[in-house]
Design brief:
It is a single chain. This protein has 241 residues and is α+β, with helices and mostly antiparallel strands. The chain has 2 domains: 3-46 and 159-204 and 231-240, Protein of unknown function (DUF541), domain 1 (Translation Initiation Factor IF3, 2-Layer Sandwich), CATH 3.30.110.170; 50-155, Alpha-Beta Plaits (2-Layer Sandwich), CATH 3.30.70.2970. Helices cover 24% and strands 42% of the residues. The chain contains 3 helices and 11 strands.
Length: 241
Amino acid sequence: MSFSCSLLFPRPEMVDYFTMYISPGLFLLPMKKRVLRVTGQGTVTAEPDLVVLSFDIEERNMEYEECILSMNSRVDTLRKELESFGIEKKALKTTDFSVKPDYVYDDKRRKQVFNGYLSHHKLFLKLDLNRERLNAILDTLAQSASTAKMSIAFEVKDKDRFRKAILEDAVRTAKMNAETIAAASGISIGQILSVEYNWREVQFMGTFVNELNEISPRASPDITPSEVSGTDSVTVVWEIL
């Protein structure tokens, strides 16, 4: 856990007011009292209960139509392989799809020459975490005829509850640090004057394992997910008595 703090005192020319930065702007607050401002960081870990499989299929062909047809065939192969585990086709969702002409530089001709069409199809699949089932799926997909590049991440389903736990830990840390600083400085703190929090996206993910399709069929993956962790911070301002 980490923290930062500052003691703020009115300048002589500002007996009744002083400035304090509160993101995202600068405000002039009517305070006559000294304040103690402490930032507390909260960190929480939890066992993951959700697995996210991400896929990237690349297809190259000199003909546009053939490029699209071949890509569709490989995606369909991937969906059928997942169906063998009772996973519906619609569960595999597209996050990005592109197809564009590709060019390479020809040293002899000294110019860019057409090198066919290059297509990328990125997809993801979210599943309840069941280690035995996950390892069986990975064993199959490592040998997939779709030759999709694949990565795996672990998450928690109840992100709101997880975020709440992180913020509670951050506030506890700020309070503990404020009390420690006050005692060491020989001051007393009173009521809380403000709580500052800049909302940001908190990542709730664990370990990634990349390009599982490159694993040898004779070496099946055995995945044991690590804990998921999240970190956030809040700043609390107390009056100094």
